[in-house]
Amino acid sequence: MKLSTASITDAKHVLFYFGDDRLGEAPTNFRMRLLHAAMAATPAERETLVPVAPGLIEAFTVAKTHVNGVEQLRSIVKADLDKRDAALDLTAVRA
After folding, report:
1. How far apart are CA 30 and CA 38, in angstroms?
2. Rounded to two decimals, what is the model's pTM?
3. Contact 55, 3 (CB under 8 A)
């Protein structure tokens, strides 16, 4: 699965909101309030939040409405971490 507007940071914030403090990352107070609003909103009301934070709301919608949505976000974040790890060139580090 690929997210169209959500960033890795959006995915991490949503994972944190859904209780994953290992791969998740604490959002700012404003973004946390947006997530609370998205949780309380109907699908139509949630759409009104899209102009404010399109990527965050996209990631939230995946987590809340897709089968295994939280796991899908975890996979995206893990893949990004693996890509970053593979890009590290530690051979240049001298003791």
Report:
1. 12
2. 0.86
3. yes
C-alpha distances in angstroms, 76 versus 9, 33, 41, 95?
11, 24, 25, 34
CA pair distance 57, 51, nearest whole angstrom: 9
Task: Give 63-92 pLDDT, tens digit per residue.
Answer: 999 999 999 999 999 999 888 777 666 565
Q: Structure tokens of 28? A: 């700012």
3-state secondary structure 37-95: HHHHCCHHHHHCCCCCCHHHHHHHHHHHHCCCHHHHHHHHHHHHHHHHHHHCCHHHCCC
